[in-house]
Each structure stands twice: as structure tokens, then as C-alpha cells.
Design brief:
Elements lengths: L2 H11 L3 H7 L4 H21 L19 E7 L13 H5 L30 E4 L4 E4 L3 H4 L5 E8 L5 H10 L9 H9 L9 E5 L25 E3 L17 H20 L5 H23 L7 H6 L8 H15 L4 E6 L11 H25 L6 E6 L3 E7 L3 E5 L3 E6 L7 E3 L1 E2 L6 E3 L2 E2 H11 L9 E3 L2 E3 L11 H4 L1
Parallel strand pairs: 1-7, 1-8, 4-12, 4-15, 5-6, 5-7
Antiparallel strand pairs: 2-3, 4-11, 8-11, 9-10, 13-14, 16-17
Length: 485
């Protein structure tokens, strides 16, 4: 064998079979390969029901009740016993230690023997259902007939990092895809010109605990991760093309960039981040025509802006995000997650009577307007709205005038998306410490969300390192009362 032939053999062995076929025989081998590959891909797509575009809309496993989700996340842990779960016995026993009949909770605090803290709320029954809500949430209270209050929630995470991680990924430890990512993977998006999964925070100066991990994909392709919008008049930075750059010039630059990116990624198929980056570039270009209209609030009436609280500095930030959430699901975005109290601002270990009503004011009007707006537009039936934090608060005091973390019993609520409103599901004990009736673990909450979207907990799977991974680790149960009452 000549030196030249040996060199050609070495070069060929260092190339992939695909590259060798592209170069050998004037490329006719690649023609055959592409024909076989496309046929095989079409066959696989037909069998699995998975389209080639990872973000294309997919069919659910069974008839869904909801098409999209808006998750209102109160970061830091709102006090259920001050908002949705009245406990008259707590005021009677205020100042006394936790009764001996109660098992001592495993919380993050060291002062487990702190006296019970009174709840001087004014409670009132609202709507035809007569659901109890405290005076701190007057706007949400107006929509209780559309809300199913879940008083029996519990979790494992006792601190913010673990609690927020578990509420987003079902485990307190990092390494699992987020709820929104699984939904995006399972259903795709109905609008290819907008992200399928959007995340918004109410405070641009702070960061949600765990950061992007809360909307990340872990071992799944990065294409399914959430896209974070900024708060303010320009939710999507760098969206608009500079006036000095012509459309045709930008198109040529992007075409060349896409060609180079595709060539680079072709031999690195195992790196999903590259494909996600390419998809994000392509989406960014399409968004230049669709997104400006989607986030342009100047098209809304003054009445709508006022309803969401955009005329008040205390309610503007979260109200704006709520209005954007409505506009996004209206345009086919699958999953929108809004963080209230970015940076654990719902975490009142002291001065609860001042700090908690402040957080309620910042959130309540926007959420109340969102529920009414969705219903008026006929969107509430197909949009599942979820409200809650990573855990609740203890009936015992901390620092004399605050409450500590309580993962053993707290309240969340759901509305729309096929949920039967005007009901209370579950309960905590007489002091609000432990969930005791119709208990819903985070796993059950996630399974219920998937079920309402038409996704089965065992059917939604992703093959990772030869092992089928499922969103709730094969655990959790759908709360039937959500739809039956």
C-alpha cells in the first residue's frame, strides 16, 4: 500500500461514516444515506408520534382539560394560616407552647418550643361557595367560586433551596428537569414564534433561589428549558434590529451563522446545548416579528391596565407580569411561571404583620385581575392557574412576631383548566401545623397538573442513558376531587 493510500485510510478512519459518505464517490453515498435516514426518521416519528422539531405541538396521552399553565410562585413561603386556612384555636392558645399531643416538627428552625403566635386576621366567607379568605387578599377572594383551595399540601424541603427545588422538580436535590420543561417536552408549543416556556420575576434586582435550575432541563435536551423575560418596558432584551442594519443584510448574516452552527453541531449530536442554542437563534429571529406585539401593553385599554394595578407602584411589577402571562397563553405559550417575592421575600421570620400584607398587596390585585380576565375572554376553561409557594408557615412564633418554615402542612390553589371551583380540598390540624385530610404531596400536585394537561405520569418519559425517566419518578396520584368536587 502506498504512503498516499495509507494516509487516505487514516484520514477516513478518523472521520465519521456520514462525513466519509459525503466525500467518497462524489457524494452519492450521502444521497443514499440521507434517503435511508429520512425514511427511518419518518417511520420513527410516525410510530412515536414525535415530530422532528422538538418544540412542535404534540398530542397529549388522553383528552386534556387544560392547554396551558400559569404557575404563580410565591417565593419564600406564604402563611396559609393567615390567608386561606383559618384556625380559631390558634388565637385561643396564643402565647402558650405547642400542646404535648402534637408531634414536634422537623423544621429548619432551632426554636421548636417557641410559643404559638396569634393570627389576628379578619376572615370572611366569599362567593356562593362561602370559601374563607382573610382580609389580606380582597381581589383573589372575588374569584373563589373558580378556585379549588388545597389545604392539605405537604413537602420534604425544609429550607428554601430544597423547597423551591422540590416544588419545581419534585425532589429537594438538583438533577431533575423542571415541571415546565416536562410539560414543554410532552406537549410542545402552539406558537413557533414565541418560547414554549416563559419565566418572569417581579424584582430585577434579586434572583430566585437556585436560579435557572428552577426552569432547567437537567438531563433532557436544553431546548425544553424556560426562557426568562425581564421585568419592565422591554421584557425581551435585544429584540429589535438596530435601525442601521437592513433586513436583507441581517438575513444574510444569520443564514451564514446558521450554516456554520449546523456544521459545528453535526458531529456533536450528544451536546444538546448546541442544538438548543441554534434553535434559540432561530426562535429569536422569528420573535422579532411576533414578540413585540405579544409584549406590547399599549394595545390594552386603560381599564385593563388599571385592573391589573399598573397605575400603582406597589402592584405594577407583578400586575404587569400577570397581564403578560394572559397575553402569552392567549398566543399559544404552553407554560408561564411568575415569581412573586423574588429572593424569598415571602419569608417572614419576623415582623409578619408588616411584611406579609405588603407582599399580599403586591400580588393580590394582579392575580385577581388575571382570573377575571381569563374568564371574561373564555380562556380560563383551557388555562390552569396554580398558586402557591415552596411551603407554608408554622403556627409557632419566631423572634416573637414571625413564623418559621412549615413543610408539613400548607395551602395551594388551582383554578381553570377543568378544575371544579368553589371548593376546599383537604385540611390541616386545628393549629395548621400538619396536613391531615386529603393530603397532597408535591408529587401529587405535579401529577394532577400533568393529568389536567392530558399527560400520564407513566406515559411521559424520556430515555436517559438507557433508562426511561419519568417526571414524578413513577410516584404521585391525581386528586380526583379537583374535577369531581
Amino acid at each position: 500500500m502506498s504512503k498516499q493510500n495509507r494516509s487516505e485510510c487514516v484520514d477516513a478512519s478518523s472521520q465519521s461514516r456520514r462525513h466519509w459518505l459525503q466525500q467518497a464517490g462524489m457524494g452519492f453515498g450521502a444521497v443514499a444515506l440521507n434517503g435511508l435516514s429520512s425514511t427511518e426518521a419518518a417511520s420513527v416519528a410516525s410510530r412515536s408520534g414525535k415530530p422532528k422539531n422538538p418544540l412542535a405541538a404534540k398530542l397529549p396521552h388522553f383528552t386534556p382539560r387544560a392547554k396551558s399553565v400559569i404557575f404563580l410562585f410565591m417565593e419564600g413561603g406564604p402563611s396559609h394560616i393567615d390567608l386561606f386556612d383559618p384556625k380559631p384555636a390558634l388565637n385561643k392558645l396564643a402565647g402558650k407552647p405547642l400542646p404535648e399531643s402534637f408531634k414536634r416538627p422537623l423544621t429548619a428552625m432551632g426554636e421548636q418550643e417557641s410559643p404559638l403566635l396569634a393570627c389576628p386576621r379578619k376572615w370572611k366567607q366569599h362567593g356562593e361557595s362561602g370559601t374563607w379568605v382573610s382580609e389580606w387578599l380582597p381581589h383573589i377572594a372575588q374569584s373563589v367560586d373558580d378556585i379549588a383551595v388545597l389545604r392539605g399540601c405537604w413537602t420534604n424541603g425544609i429550607n428554601h433551596a430544597g423547597g423551591v427545588c422540590q416544588m419545581n422538580t419534585v425532589t429537594p436535590l438538583a438533577g431533575r428537569p423542571s415541571l415546565g420543561s416536562w410539560v414543554t417536552y410532552g406537549l410542545g408549543s402552539e406558537n413557533e414564534n414565541l418560547p414554549a416556556f416563559v419565566v418572569m420575576q417581579d424584582d430585577i434586582k434579586r434572583t430566585v433561589v437556585n436560579g435557572p435550575r428552577n426552569w432547567g432541563t437537567a438531563f433532557m435536551p436544553a431546548a425544553f428549558q424556560g426562557t426568562r423575560f425581564s421585568n419592565g418596558d422591554v421584557p425581551i432584551p435585544n429584540l429589535f434590529t438596530p435601525a442601521t442594519v437592513e433586513q436583507s443584510r441581517q438575513q444574510r448574516k444569520l443564514s451564514l451563522l446558521n450554516q456554520l452552527n449546523r456544521q459545528h453541531a453535526a458531529s456533536r449530536e450528544q451536546q444538546s446545548e448546541l442544538e438548543a442554542r441554534i434553535l434559540s437563534y432561530e426562535l429569536a429571529f422569528r420573535m422579532q416579528s411576533a414578540a413585540p406585539e405579544a409584549v406590547d401593553l399599549t394595545t390594552e385599554t386603560k381599564e385593563t391596565l388599571d385592573n391589573y394595578g399598573l397605575n400603582n407602584k406597589d402592584t405594577k411589577a407583578f400586575g404587569r407580569n400577570c397581564l403578560l402571562a394572559r397575553r402569552l397563553v392567549e398566543r399559544g405559550v404552553r407554560f408561564v411561571q411568575l415569581y412573586s417575592g423574588t429572593g424569598s421575600q415571602w419569608d417572614q421570620h419576623s415582623d409578619l404583620e408588616v411584611k406579609h400584607p405588603k407582599m399580599c398587596r403586591s400580588m393580590d390585585q394582579g392575580v385577581g385581575a388575571l382570573l377575571k380576565d381569563l374568564k371574561q375572554r373564555g380562556l380560563l376553561d383551557e388555562t390552569l392557574v396554580v398558586w402557591g409557594g415552596e411551603f407554608g408557615r408554622t403556627p409557632m412564633s419566631e423572634k416573637g412576631d414571625g413564623r418559621d418554615h412549615n413543610p408539613t402542612g400548607f395551602t395551594m390553589w388551582m383554578a381553570g383548566g377543568g378544575v371544579k371551583g368553589g371548593q376546599v380540598i383537604g385540611n390541616t390540624d386545628e393549629l395548621g401545623l400538619y396536613a391531615v385530610e386529603d393530603k397532597m404531596h408535591v408529587l401529587d400536585i405535579h401529577v394532577s397538573i400533568y393529568h389536567l394537561l392530558g399527560l400520564g405520569k407513566l406515559k411521559l418519559e424520556y430515555l436517559h442513558q438507557g433508562r426511561p425517566e419519568r417526571p414524578t419518578l413513577n410516584q404521585g396520584s391525581f386528586m380526583e376531587k379537583l374535577v369531581t368536587g
